[in-house]
Amino acid sequence: MTGLLLLTITSFIFAMFQGGFLSWFLFYTFLPFALYSFTLIGYSLDKFKVERMISKSQYQAGDHLEARIIISRKSLMPLFYLMVEDEIPDSLLPLAQQKKKIIVFPLLKREIKLNYRFDHLPRGEHFLETIRLQTGDFFGLYQKTSIYTVPQTIIVYPAIIQLPFQQLEKAYDQGNGGSIRKLLHDHTLASGVRDYQPGDQISWINWKATAKKNEMMTKEFDDQKSHDLFLILDEQQTSLFEEMVVFTASFSHAVLKKGIQMGYLGSAFQEPFLPIRGGEHQRQDILYKLARTKASAMERLEVSLENHQSILPLNAALIIVTGKLSRTTMEFIAGYKLNRAVTVFCMKNGSFLTAEEIAVRESAKKKGIRVNYLDQHQYESEIIEVAAQ
User: Fold this and answer.
1) Which of 312, 316, 229 is nearest to 267 (CA)?
2) Pairing of strands 65-72, 190-195
């Protein structure tokens, strides 16, 4: 403001003292730009209508997001330029370099539409909050800014890799504990009835109980009760945490799609655990928690489990996904096992086992615990069983 005023006064004084056509020509040429700048000072950017339109609010990791910003105004004040910035949350900062600020030259336009796109969305819950508008004069001496709050939330679920049925059966098989194949095909002895859950097969419906209660009721089987799963994700900091989340999501998706009931717990205990249930609703709940999870556990896995023993059900097989499996952790799990079947998936970088990993796996096998080491680059095509070298 001060600089613009001084520049205007200086050009006028120069024309007065210098005189002549050229000096006055320069002053009158400069005058419209100066008047526009002074007018802009009194022009408000706060009366615009700013909207952000996103085609959907739920994505999967790796998807792209397409958004449109619509800016409407009633006045005909010409704007030389308008810089539009959709302020990106920290969770999306790696993508901010793709398209952070957009400059348009609206002049007399009353409605401005801008499109932008983010590729390869990262997993997480992302909050889009504010849109910043900025304009100024021709000389860059005066600028004004207005910030609009346009809150929107997008959920990016972890990617899901289709795990073959043979993998699930092999991973879940616990010897005397049973197998998935038996669970899926041996529904002959009903032990009771329960409320219908999304994902239950039509053949499981107990029509007599349904007619009596006027609500959908399904049969409950002894083998179904004994084959429930409870999955625990180790949320300690590790470079392979994203791979662990992808495997957990893929495993949960496949198991629930096969009609098996399962619960879920993150070792950081930042959110309530999910009790054992089945169906599509449970699948969505688990994926939502996996979208929000972070490697934020401050305690080792065994310490977290010891502090929350009352949460874990006694009548369900435990599935533990971790990126750090030591002798200490395995000894604790063995002592905590009781009569439960336990399978541990340990994500690692590379397909060869170290001497320590071989020793841990053999020790776990003697205690009735199955350990599967997963190569981050290969588990989607094969659950690795690396022979001792």
Assistant:
1) 312
2) unpaired
Rg (CA), the chain: 31
CATH number at residue 285: 3.40.50.410
pTM, 2 dp: 0.72
Dihedral of alpha carbons 143, 147, 153, 158, sign: positive
Query: In terms of residue numbers, what domain contains 132?
Result: 49-157
Residues 123, 172, single domain; the answer is no
In angstroms, what CA-CA distances link 57 with 62, 109, 200, 270, 289? 15, 30, 28, 24, 16
DSSP string for 109-171: -SEEEEEEEE-SPPSEEEEEEEEEEEEE-TTSS-EEEEEEEEEEEEEEEPP-----HHHHHHH
Mean pLDDT lowest among 77-86, 143-152, 191-200, 270-279: 191-200
CA distance 294 to 244: 11
Sign of CA dihedral 290, 295, 298, 304: positive
Tell me the pairing of strands 65-72 and 111-118: antiparallel
Token look-up 């520049």 returns 7
Same-domain pairing of 170 and 306: yes
Per-residue tokens: 36: 């526009």
